[in-house]
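call fold(seq) -> tokens
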Amino acid sequence: MIEFVRNVRLWFAPEEVRREGGTPDYRFSLANERTFLAWLRTALALIGGGFAVDQFLPDLRWAWRVGLALALLAAGVLCSLRAVNHWVRCERAMRRGDDLPVSRFPALLGIAVAVVAVAMVVVVLFGWAG
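ret:
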């Protein structure tokens, strides 16, 4: 938990990351930034999908529409927060010469998106209108 709190503080003070270890090859830092941006694009797509479900499926039962929209919005929020945390963890590991951190988040996000997709397939097939 202490490590997580330290990482959160580093989200807003990236110059502190530079004080750890040595400077890695710039290509690795730039690749880390590209990965961060890919996670943010994924987060934006999930958030957009949440709004799309809410706005473009007005005939869907309220509980289904709100549930699916909130699931996508929550996944987008978690994905954006995870992007920053992962960027900091990787940058610190590269500077210290440690192995890159591992995470279960991609698997959990994939499962969450799959569950929402299956729910939407069921809704489309059975046309559950409100």
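The radius of gyration is 19 Å.
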